[in-house]
Amino acid sequence: MTPPPQSATVAGGGRRRGATRSTAGPSLNQGSAGWQQPVGALSLARPACARGYASPLAHAAWRLAWVGLAVLLACVGLGVRAQSTGGVAPEVAAGWNAALQTSQAVIGQPLGPVEAMVFTDHQNRRVTLADLRGKPVVVSFVYTGCYQACPVATQGLMKAVAAARTALGADSFHVLSIGFNQPFDTPDAMGAFARQARIVDDRWRFLSPRTDDVPALLRAFGFSYTATPKGFDHITQATIVDARGVVAAQVYGDAIDLPQFIGPLKAVMSGEAAQRLSVENIWLKVKLYCTVYDASSGNYKLNYSLFFELFCGVTVLGALAWFMLRELRRSRST
Questions:
Q1: pLDDT of 284 strictly over 70
Q2: Alpha-carbon torsion 5, 6, 9, 13, what sign?
Q3: Beta-carbon contacts of residue 243 (< 8 Å; ≥ 6 apart)
Q4: Contact 286/192 with Cβ under 8 angstroms?
Q5: Which residues, including other chains, have CB under 8 Å from residue 190's CB and lie 6 or more apart?
Q6: Quick one: pLDDT at residue 292?
Q7: pLDDT at 192 over 90
Q8: Highest mean pLDDT: which of 33-47, 51-65, 181-195, 274-288?
Q9: Is residue 166 scored above 60 in pLDDT?
């Protein structure tokens, strides 16, 4: 006869029915609840500490394990949520998206009555946007009580402006920084802000608008902000206005990518040159065409090979025109 199966305890402190392991080969063992389990399989029943056989310390350890698991799952859920919104809370992301849509909506729109608004610059001179017509204008909005974001953004704009003046001409466009926190952004406060930023560009003015003009001014430029206990949350943008007073482009960020800034300025200047035919404008358009971005140096430069290509092209076209005109005259004479 085959000897009776030998069983071994797998959980708890004693032998359990229906949870045995046999040395005599696989067989089925009938448990007290009527279910069958292969002999040799480990028990799926709750551990002894969950059945009241363990000490209070074991109970505490078991509950702590469940709490830790719950916390871990919560952290994973928050991480997934943050990743889906780019690491930003949904309500904050929604606010930024709304500000971006407001900013983009004014592209292609004329400034209209805003051009007649009277500003006072940091040297206590009166100026209107209409006074600056005829050249592109770059406009940024700041508030002088800002000690981090606005100064950093202004420094980034200063670098982009310097590169643009080198590439397009020192007197090719105007720059305005407007203080929107009225009545606190006074001409004196704007002057202090300019000195702190170490801006010495004579064609860069820091303006204070009238308090009552601020809402319409911000709407025209697509600029919005939210008051916070620490100041204002606002989108960092530089608005490019063409020589006719139409919003041509919006450039974002405190570290401005040169092609995104100089590219729209080139397009605006080239369009204006094409509308007014003169030797000066023809030369300007050629110069703008040959001013290209050099990725290796990170700056714009004149590509003289393009000058050569243009010269050859014009020469060939001129020769063809002369030849055709001569042949036409010969045919008429005969």
A1: no
A2: positive
A3: 133, 134, 135, 136, 268, 272
A4: no
A5: 121, 122, 144, 177, 179, 206, 207, 208
A6: 74
A7: yes
A8: 181-195
A9: yes
End-to-end CA distance of the chain: 133
pLDDT digits (tens, 9 = 90+) for 8-24: 333 344 444 334 343 34
Q: pLDDT-based confidence at 230, cuts 50/70/90?
A: confident
d(CA 12, CA 230): 60
Rounded-to-integer distance, Cα 192 and Cα 98, Å: 32
Domain 106-258, what fold?
A: Glutaredoxin (3.40.30)
Spatial CA neighbour of 171 closest among 132, 119, 139, 229: 132
* Two structure tokens written together for 139: 């406009």
ω into residue 113 within 30 of 0, thus cis?
no
Residues with Cβ within 8 Å of residue 123, at least 6 apart in sequence = 187, 191
Q: Model's pTM, two decimal places? A: 0.64
For residues 150 and 118, give the distance between their C-alpha atoms in angstroms, rounded to a whole number.
Answer: 23
> Which tokens is 125 given?
């001179």
CB proximity list for 111: less than 8 A, separation 6 or greater: 129, 220, 221, 241, 245, 246, 247
- For the record, the structure tokens of 227 come out as 């008051």
Is residue 183 a contact partner of residue 211, using CB atoms and an 8 Å limit? yes
